[in-house]
Amino acid sequence: MKKVDAFWEMRNLGKTVLEINFDENDTTDSLNILASEFETYDYLIAKVPKEKMDLIHALEDNGFRFMETQFELLYNLNKTKEPSSFVKKTSEQSQYKKVDTFDQLSMFLSKIEEDLFITDRISLDPLFGTKIAHKRYLNWLSDALLSDTSAIYEVEVKSRDVGFFYVIEKNSTTCYGVLASVYKKYRNSGLGLVVLESAFKYAKEAGYSKVMTRVSSNNLEALRVNINVGFECRDVHYILRKANFPKQDV
Question: What range(s) does the N-acetyltransferase domain occupy (predicted)?
């Protein structure tokens, strides 16, 4: 079990937050050492490995509520799947460009619509909602500009900015795809696949051999798209939360 005081969430949620990552060796006895923290923090997130139903039920007995199943996906860049003719042709007319100045960041953030995050667990949580989820993501994206290990790239097709991808370096061989999306006006156009192809191209040119990402069971469209382009499911976790404040306090 690993505990993380997510102090950065105070800016996002206005709450003290503890993240608890359980592993396969943890049992229900592990909860005994968390008893005081269950009441100390405003908001607690528990990440539980698959098949640990006894641990999930024990967390529920302690006031936790299920939020999502999280799928960890991996894409092998040495075994890429051939894209459709449309994606291939459009990708040849596209390029990715890094958001690396504050002016560029400001312009980029202005394109992020509030309804982009409606499947996020914070957005779906009745205690928070879409506005807070939107603020939280904007803060994360802003932090990327100051990070040495993460970056945002916009995807341009025929001189039009159609979407973006946000990546973090996990290790020398693997990058973590945090977010990838098209802008609202280009939804349902097939350009989401072009954005993914651009992310794969970036990863190859940066010297990575694998791309990892995580997708929520609340976002079936993203899960379906990632599986169809060649991602493989490598792990599954259950996400639960406990809140020590009433809804009207938000």
Answer: 106-250
User: 74-236 belongs to which CATH class?
Assistant: alpha beta
Amino acid at 77: L
Q: How many C-alpha atoms does 130 have within 13 Å on its Cβ side?
A: 8
**Chain centroid offset of residue 98 CA:** 19
Q: Across-strand partners of 166?
A: 152, 179
Q: Output the pLDDT for position 72.
A: 97
Q: What is the pTM of this model?
A: 0.91
pLDDT of 234 strictly over 90: yes
DSSP H or E segment with residue 95: strand 94-98
d(CA 22, CA 1): 4
Q: Please compute Rg for the chain using Cα positions.
A: 19
Tens digit of pLDDT for each residue in 190-222? 899 999 999 999 999 999 999 999 999 999 999
Rounded Cα distance, 164 and 137, in Å: 14
Q: Which residue intervals of the chain bear CATH 3.40.630.30? A: 74-236
* End-to-end alpha carbon distance in the chain: 30
Helix extents (H) in the chain: 9-13, 37-40, 53-61, 85-92, 102-109, 121-124, 130-144, 191-205, 220-229
- How would you label 98-124 residue by residue, b for 16+ Cβ within 10 Å and e otherwise? ebeeeeebeebeeebeeebbebbbbbb
What are the residues facing 241 on neighbouring strands?
45, 65
C-alpha to C-alpha distance for 195 and 193, rounded to whole angstroms: 5
Nearest to 154 by CA among 187, 107, 189: 107
For residues 220, 131, 170, 241, the Cα torsion angle rounded to the nearest 10 degrees is -70
Predicted confidence (pLDDT) at residue 250 exceeds the cutoff of 60:
no
Amino acid found at 81: K
